[in-house]
Design a protein that fits this description.
alpha+beta; single chain; Four Helix Bundle (Hemerythrin (Met), subunit A); Nonspecific Lipid-transfer Protein, Chain A; 10 helices; about 280 residues; about 45% helix; globular
Length: about 280
């Protein structure tokens, strides 16, 4: 196959359909369904719906309307401070949103969803993004990656709702392939602290119609991700199916999914994949 540079992923056309799927899902929920527990820790279905609404409102306010948030009380000393700040914002909103009925949440989402789609459609994919994709280790990003990050956020939260209410998963290649193509870009950042000789290659094989094969190669002081295989034989190989892959990227507990992953070669290079999260952590 040979090693190939990763290509941009333009998911802007997917947002209207993703929103329609979410609305169709939420509109058929019964009252008890809104209180069902989900994979998102303490959040029930209604809390995830409220979080999605918050994401829409914040993005529209910040990017479309150029509205400034109040800065944090103390400057961020590192990624952990940023994560704590964002977790606080998320928790505050979810707490307040519990005052809203499911009908109110639905009505608001019906308003914000099309506006989000229009905002993202208006952006130049190669232009400078408002926010960097920090889970990929970037200090600046292009719009296509920032919008891609927003897509994976909305997709995986909708998937959590679907699992909670026993609805059909949104896992056709149209939806899932871009999630995986974008999420694997977290690997170089997540492997940053794992040492290896120059040229070492970790081969990642994700099986299924939305999967693929990638190579993580040690270059200088860090790692670089390529599509395909080639070069030196891999010092470690990670093999898993696409359904397990997306759960890992969105913080599944390693003990819950470790048995579904085949790891060969250097154990530390294989184990690092279990925390290769494509979210802030």
């Amino acid at each position: 196959m040979g090693l190939r540079p990763l290509e941009p992923v333009d998911v802007r056309p997917l947002f209207p359909g993703l929103h329609e799927a979410l609305m169709a899902l939420l509109e058929r929920l019964k009252a008890a369904d809104w209180a069902r527990p989900t994979l998102a820790g303490a959040w029930a279905v209604r809390d995830i719906a409220a979080h999605l609404l918050d994401g829409d409102l914040r993005r529209l306010s910040l990017q479309r309307d150029r509205h400034s948030l109040r800065p944090p009380d103390e400057p961020f000393a590192g990624e952990a401070d940023l994560v704590a700040f964002l977790n606080g914002l998320n928790a505050d909103w979810v707490k307040v949103a519990r005052r809203m009925s499911p009908r109110v949440l639905l009505d608001l989402l019906k308003t914000t969803g099309p506006q989000i789609s229009a905002l993202f459609a208006s952006l130049d994919p190669d232009g400078p993004a408002l926010l960097p994709v920090s889970w990929a280790g970037e200090s600046s990003s292009k719009h296509w990656f920032d919008v891609g990050r927003e897509y994976t956020e909305r997709w995986h939260h909708q998937q959590q709702i679907r699992l909670a209410v026993d609805a059909a998963p949104l896992d056709e290649p149209r939806w899932l392939k871009p999630v995986i193509d974008l999420s694997v870009r977290a690997l170089p950042h997540r492997y940053a602290g794992v040492p290896a000789p120059e040229g070492s290659r970790v081969q990642v094989e994700i099986h299924g119609s939305s999967g693929g094969t990638w190579s993580l190669v040690r270059e200088g002081a860090g790692w670089r991700l390529f599509a395909g295989t080639g070069g030196a034989p891999p010092v470690a190989r990670v093999s898993l199916d696409e359904k397990t892959a997306w759960r890992i990227f969105f913080k599944a507990r390693p003990d819950e999914i470790a048995s579904q992953i085949a790891l060969e070669g250097r154990s530390d290079l294989g184990q690092a994949f279990l925390t290769a999260w494509a979210v802030m952590a």
